[in-house]
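job 3f2a | input accepted
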Amino acid sequence: MVQRIAIIQGHPDPGKRFCRALGEAYASGAQEAGLEVKLIDVAQLGISFLRTQAEFETGEPPPPIAEAQEVIRWADHLLII
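job 3f2a | predicted structure (81 res):
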């Protein structure tokens, strides 16, 4: 079975950043080694912030968050940058 890696790159600014380059280099190396890789780029998710405690406790996560949760469940290995 091929190992699956999820990389969460959390730098809030889009564009050329050290954290983004680090995540891309890690992903490239892992793919070259034959591993499956999925990248979650937080700056690109386009999510809104929670407004109330009730929204946190009973609200459904927005689609980009639900998709990120699926990627995390899919992964055998998680890297957070």
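job 3f2a | The chain has a mean pLDDT of 90.
job 3f2a | closed
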